[in-house]
């Protein structure tokens, strides 16, 4: 049975890591959300949304991005939300969870010494909460399931 998967990633490395997950999504109905409109060319034929790039230091942009991502999740009603971070992924995971979607957080490979701040904040909203570094895995999470993307 095919699932609708909402794949959410910020720009740069977060997006690159999401693209590396594409083989795992084969045969599913994909919807991609990121912060760079130009990334649409990397997922041809798939539903794609670009949202405002925001950080905790740009309050107005953050409010705008929260509204955009929230609307996308409400509109798309995904079965699963998968994110490699950061801010748009936090919003999508929280809204998706409220709507009954299964949620997956895969923390960035760049976070070698500790989980990202975003990754720590989504802990209770993620059905599957993962790190890409074995030494960061703990019994109560995050989990580690193998190799690095």
TrEMBL record:
It is a single-pass membrane protein. One of its GO terms (biological process) is dolichol-linked oligosaccharide biosynthetic process. This is Oligosaccharide biosynthesis protein Alg14 like. InterPro entries: Oligosacch_biosynth_Alg14. Its main location: endoplasmic reticulum. Keywords: Endoplasmic reticulum, Membrane, Transmembrane, Transmembrane helix. It is found in: Endoplasmic reticulum membrane. GO terms for molecular function: N-acetylglucosaminyldiphosphodolichol N-acetylglucosaminyltransferase activity. Coiled coil: none annotated. PANTHER family: GLYCOSYL TRANSFERASE-RELATED, UDP-N-ACETYLGLUCOSAMINE TRANSFERASE SUBUNIT ALG14 HOMOLOG.
